[in-house]
Each structure stands twice: as C-alpha cells, then as structure tokens.
Design a protein that fits this description.
Layout (H helix, E strand, L loop, with lengths): L1 E2 L2 E2 L4 E3 L23 E7 L12 E4 L2 E4 L8 H8 L9 E6 L4 H12 L5 E5 L9 H5 L2 H12 L6 E5 L6 H11 L3 E4 L3 E3 L2 E2 L4 E2 L6 E4 L4 H15 L6 E3 L6 H10 L3 E4 L9 H15 L22
Parallel strand pairs: 3-4, 3-16, 4-7, 7-8, 8-9, 9-10, 10-15, 15-16
Antiparallel strand pairs: 1-2, 5-6, 6-14, 11-14, 12-13
Helix pairs in contact: 2-4, 4-5, 5-6, 6-7, 7-8
Length: about 300
C-alpha cells in the first residue's frame, strides 16, 4: 500500500515512544520491522533531554500512563549516530519532531530534512511536558504555525500528531491542512492521573501523564472519524491509533477512516502482535471479497445515513 507517496509493506505503523529509535525490538526473537509499513522514532528535540523524574510509567486498568518527558539524545546524535545504523530496506522510518519554540521545531525538522529519514511526524500534542508541545497542540492557531514552520524546513511528508485534549479536533485538522500538513496521526494520548492512596500523592513523578492502551480506543475511533470528515475531501491520509491490540481493532480504525493503523502499548506485552494483526486483516479482506486494504478505508455506515468514505 501507499501512504503519502511512500510504499508501506503493511498498513501497520509502530508508534513513537514505544520502540525507541527503531532498534529496540529487533533484539526480540521473531520480531521484524518488515512486518510493519513504518516505524515512528522516539520524540527528538534540538538538545538532549533527561526527561521527567520517576515514576514515569504506571499500568492502569486496560491501559498505561506514561510521562517520559521526551528523554532523547538530541537531533544531532540521532541524525549522525542512530540513523546510519537503521536498515532502510526493511521498512520506512518516520522522525518525530518535538520542540518548545517554533525555532526549535524548524531547526530539528531542517536537520531531519538533510537525512535519509522518509517522513517527519510533528509532535504538537505531548501531554507530559511542561512547555511547548501540549500548548501548541490544543490551540489551532499555534498548531497551524508549527506546521507552517516545519513545512518551510522540509519537502518530506509531514504527519501532524493531533491531541484528543481539545474541543474541536476537526477544526484543528483543517487549519493544519491549510498550513501544509500531508497527513495526520490521530490520536495522541489522553491526559490522566493515578494516585497512591497511602502517600496521597500522584504515582507519576510528573503528576500527570498520557493514557494509552485499550481504554482509549472508543475515543480514538471517534476522533479518527471526525478528522476523516475533513481529510477525505483533500485526500489527506490518517494514521489511526489508540488501543490497537488485535486485527479487529485495526479493522475498526480502517473503517472509521484511517489509511494506516498505529500499534504501541500492545507491543509491551506482545512484541509479535503485528504478525497476528496482519494475518487477521488479510483473513478479513478475503472473507469479505475486498481486494485491497485501501478499499476498506472510510467505509463506515452511519445510522440514518450513507457511507462516510
């Protein structure tokens, strides 16, 4: 299949923050990056970041809270030391650009533009840093300004990662399209908290974190559907994500309007889950006599109305 002009092996995408810089899961027996269409690398900033204080991760019912805080070695290390070690014949690699200022977004994007990276995801919606990203992502004007800034720094496909923590995600998407976004990742994590009742303190050292996993799937499906209503007229593809752990989950996202499907939290308890998801998608297509996975995208039939595709 094709996504933003890039050939994908499968409709699956490994999500940023879940697979390091593309090499972590290659140490697991039976795992292969060839099982996915693309790998989104860990969020990268201009300078190295140590991230948030511990605890950074906490398991919740049907989900996980994380507040890593964009720990990363900085864009120079990623471009000069990490990218040369990746096998670009296996899959496509998408950089994840984060920043605290427009200038930082521009510079990090520029550095990735001058690299073998295939596409760039703009992280304007990180819920566990105290500056920059989350404020940008929840303000349509600022979201558009970040996209416009990154657009000036690269001709590579730009994938804007949208926050569910806003009142009008479709309106935000519309502004980002006008500013030059080629695609969207929908959704980022929801804001959440867990409390230790003995100490009466938040479990997460950052007090709050991003909630991912099956618990957020219904929210993610609705947001993909809403953004698809804007994107379909412009031919803008969506990576649908949020709680995908099975072929059935992935198929729901495709029907809702996603052209590709992100897998993240599920990898932590089943590193080989992508193989079973791919098999399940193929079986579904065969069972329903659907030739291509793209023929399934946006075929949701609403009650009282026609198809959304």
């Amino acid at each position: 299949m094709e996504f933003c002009g890039l050939a994908f092996n499968t409709p699956l995408v490994l999500l940023s923050g879940c697979v390091g810089f593309g090499e972590e899961y290659t140490r697991v027996a039976g795992f292969s990056n060839r099982d996915v269409g693309a790998v989104c690398l860990k969020g990268t900033t201009g300078q190295p970041r140590l991230g948030n204080p511990p605890h950074r991760v906490y398991e919740t019912p049907m989900g996980m809270l994380n507040a890593i805080g964009l720990q990363n070695p900085g864009v120079d290390q990623v471009v000069d030391r990490i990218l040369p070690e990746l096998d670009f014949s296996e899959t496509r690699f998408i950089a994840n650009v984060s920043g605290s200022t427009l200038e930082e977004y521009h510079e990090v994007t520029r550095r990735f533009d001058d690299s073998p990276i295939d596409a760039i995801e703009i992280n304007i919606s990180c819920p566990n840093v105290k500056e920059g990203g989350v404020a940008f992502g929840n303000d349509p004007d600022m979201s558009a300004r970040v996209v416009e800034t990154c657009r000036k720094a690269t001709d590579k496909p730009l994938v804007t990662k949208l926050s569910p923590n806003q009142t009008d995600i479709a309106g935000n998407a519309r502004r980002c399209i006008e500013a030059g976004s080629d695609a969207f990742a929908v959704i980022n994590t929801l804001m959440g908290m867990a409390i230790d009742i003995e100490s009466r303190r938040p479990v997460i050292g950052n007090n709050q974190g991003g909630l991912s996993g099956p618990a957020i799937k219904p929210v993610a499906l609705l947001k993909v559907h809403q953004v698809h209503q804007v994107c379909r007229a412009h031919g803008i593809p969506i990576i649908g994500q949020g709680g995908v752990a099975s072929a059935e989950d992935a198929i729901e996202f495709l029907i809702a309007g996603a052209s590709a499907v992100g897998v993240g939290t599920a990898l932590f308890y089943d590193p080989l889950v992508c193989r079973s998801i791919n098999t399940g998608i193929r079986d579904y297509l065969d069972r329903h006599a659907i030739d291509r996975v793209t023929d399934l995208v946006g075929t949701l039939q609403l009650h009282g109305g026609g198809a959304c595709g």
